[in-house]
């Protein structure tokens, strides 16, 4: 939801509530990320992971996150820059980044 108001100076002010731009990854990519995260964190098979699952909430520390990213790179044949990998905190963020990198790789 976006609301536009006018300030005293006559310029519009823009307020957003939970405004998010997302390029949702394919369900199979999200599923593969979930499998890799479960394996890396040695989670029980019955663990429920969703696209919103945060690595930290699953018990991952920074080293675990690096290992997850390395496994994703190997699985999908991509290379994630360190800068980008530090922004990955959820399954969805990982899946979206993978799709973006796979697409960029196929265009090259």
Automatic annotation (TrEMBL):
Residues 27-102 form the Carrier domain. Keywords: Chloroplast, Fatty acid biosynthesis, Fatty acid metabolism, Lipid biosynthesis, Lipid metabolism, Phosphopantetheine, Phosphoprotein, Plastid, Transit peptide. InterPro entries: ACP, ACP-like_sf, ACP_chloroplastic, PKS_PP-bd, PP-bd_ACP, Ppantetheine_attach_site. GO terms for cellular component: chloroplast. SMART domains: PKS_PP. It is found in: Plastid, Chloroplast. It comes from the Eukaryota. Pfam families: PP-binding. One of its GO terms (molecular function) is acyl carrier activity. Belongs to the acyl carrier protein (ACP) family. NCBIfam families: acyl_carrier, PRK00982.1-2. Carrier of the growing fatty acid chain in fatty acid biosynthesis. HAMAP family: Acyl_carrier. This is Acyl carrier protein.
């Amino acid at each position: 939801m976006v609301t536009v108001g006018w300030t005293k100076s006559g310029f519009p002010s823009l307020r957003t509530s939970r405004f998010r731009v997302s390029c949702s990854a394919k369900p199979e990519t999200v599923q593969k990320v979930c499998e890799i995260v479960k394996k890396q964190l040695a989670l029980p098979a019955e663990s429920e992971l969703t696209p919103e699952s945060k690595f930290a909430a699953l018990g991952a520390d920074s080293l675990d996150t690096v290992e997850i990213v390395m496994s994703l790179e190997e699985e999908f044949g991509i290379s994630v820059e360190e800068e980008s990998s530090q922004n990955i905190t959820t399954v969805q963020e990982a899946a979206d980044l993978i799709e973006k990198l796979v697409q960029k790789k196929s265009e090259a």
